[in-house]
Amino acid sequence: MSVLIVRVIARTPSPVVRRCARCDGPREFVSSGRFRVNAQKKRLDVWLVFKCAACDATWNATVHERARAAELPDLDGYHANDAALAARWAMALGGAGSFDLELEGERSAARLRFRVPSPLRVRADLALARALGLSRAAAARLVRGFVQDGLEVELDDEARRLVAALPIAADPEGPSVADLRAPELVNPG
Ligand SMILES: [Zn+2]
């Protein structure tokens, strides 16, 4: 049976509002795009460094605590400050941001399969509504809760009609752009 892939790609994380000790008040903290990795007795701590937009004070947001290297498949990405990985973590830690949805596959698809790179979590009905141009109510009939990577959704007749009319894949103008805000995304774990 043909499947349409919906790929979720983190784009721009929203700033995280928290108290800045130096400014002595709530401020927006923006991801610096840089990770800090600290090794102690074969255990690793990983943080994503945010900066206060007003005074540049740093906030190290915990990504992993006391983890073994073998438990961290993205360790090379942390060391290299991989931009896409940093964007995903900034969105997961901050709980909001904008992302793109790329569609790949056949218009005749009867099923959708979501691709959601860790650690992102996305509300399934919202993602589906944005991807297909469905109403929230129509999307919620098909799927609820959070999208897990690999989640497959069976399309009903209305959704299949919409999919058949979508500009799909290989078309640079094609991908739908979603701009989802908190609480659509939530913290991992
Ligand atoms: Zn500050």
Number of domains: 2
What's the rounded overall pLDDT mean? 83
Q: Kindly, what is the distance between the CA atoms of the first and last residues, rounded to a whole number of angstroms?
A: 33 Å
Name every ligand kind in the structure.
zinc ion
* Uncertain parts: 169-189
As a percent range, the share of strand residues is 35-45%
Helix tally? Answer: 5
Say how many strands there are.
11
Quaternary organisation of the protein chains: single chain
Largest sheet, order of strands side by side?
10-7-1-6-11
Radius of gyration: 19 Å
What proportion of the residues is helical, as a percent range? 10-25%
What do you see in this structure?
The protein has helices at residues 75-79, 83-94, 124-132, 136-142, 157-164, and strands at 3-13, 16-20, 25-40, 43-52, 58-67, 97-105, 111-115, 122-123, 146-147, 152-154, 176-178. With 189 residues, the protein is an alpha+beta fold. The chain folds into two domains: 3-13 and 96-178, no CATH class; 16-81, no CATH class. The strands form three sheets. It has a five-stranded mixed beta sheet. Strands 2-3-4-5 form a four-stranded antiparallel beta sheet, covered by helices on one side. Strand 4 and strand 5 (58-67) form a beta hairpin. Helix 3 (124-132) crosses helix 4. The radius of gyration is 19 Å and the shape is elongated. The model is unreliable at 169-189 (pLDDT under 50).
Please specify the SSE layout and strand pairing.
Blueprint: E1 3-13, E2 16-20, E3 25-40, E4 43-52, E5 58-67, H1 75-79, H2 83-94, E6 97-105, E7 111-115, E8 122-123, H3 124-132, H4 136-142, E9 146-147, E10 152-154, H5 157-164, E11 176-178
Parallel strand pairs: 1-7
Antiparallel strand pairs: 1-6, 2-3, 3-4, 4-5, 6-11, 7-10, 8-9
Helix pairs in contact: 3-4
Bound molecules: zinc ion (ZN).
